[in-house]
Amino acid sequence: MSNELNIELFGEDNIDFLAETMCLDLEEIQSHIDKVSSKHRDYFRDIFDFMVSEYNYFNCKYSNTILIYQMFISDKLNSKFLKINIKHKIQENSESYNIGDVLRHFFLHFCEGGVRQAYKYRETDYWYPKIIFRERIESDIDDLDKELVVYRGTSKEEYKARVYGQSWTLDKTVAYKFAFSHYSHSLEYIETERVILKAIISRENILLYEKYDQHKEQEVIVRTCELKNVVLLEEKILESSLA
């Protein structure tokens, strides 16, 4: 990681587990917390301590069990998160509360189904911790062609930096949506330069592909270092869809 992590925020003993096992981008989480909720670092430290200490217990005891036990996990974890909120006097719907609630959402799904489920059920209308896939996840990858053309709708800054996200698509129209319409209601993205990218990648460098994904986005998670022939297909300023 290029930026120094705040040990007090994450806890030295927690960092490897959060980054390697839970596949969380800690730099991105730290940046977001520092930007909108830096005064409650102790609150987030308690959340990260809880996530690491409780994961093995809940995962080993209740993973792959019937629904009633999954509901039990949900109730227990939600109760513990509530206690952390009360301890730190976090007001409902505050920025700190919203971040904590998203971390709760991530952790609940991670306990039930690992990084695949946490990613599948991620929130898309609000900030969500960035997940970095580090190895192949069993899915429908073998159904893909050996060599693939993939597309991505993203910022021009990403293209200039050549530091690409892992989420690409087999469908150019999906990339168009993410480039020029999906974020048109968000003030953070309005009037920014957006682009559609095209690249080539081999099947062996796909880390996740679900043929029947619920969003029908034909998403592929890739090893970004193996992308070939990345080219810019289209660019324009994102226009607002706000009334």
Please tell me about this protein's structure:
With 243 residues, the chain is α+β, with helices and mostly antiparallel strands. The protein folds into 2 domains: 7-120, no CATH class; 141-237, no CATH class. It is 44% helix and 16% strand. The protein contains 8 helices and 6 strands; from the N terminus they run H-H-H-H-H-H-E-H-E-H-E-E-E-E. The protein has helices at 7-10, 15-21, 26-36, 41-62, 67-87, 95-120, 156-161, 172-180, and strands at 147-155, 167-169, 193-202, 206-209, 219-222, 228-237. The strands form 2 sheets. Strands 1-3-6 form a 3-stranded antiparallel beta sheet. It has a 3-stranded antiparallel beta sheet with strand order 2-5-4. Helix 4 runs parallel beside helix 6 and helix 5 runs antiparallel to helix 6. The model has no long low-confidence stretch (mean pLDDT 89).
Task: Describe, in short, the structure shown.
The chain has 243 residues and is α+β, with helices and mostly antiparallel strands. Helix content is 44%, strand content 16%.
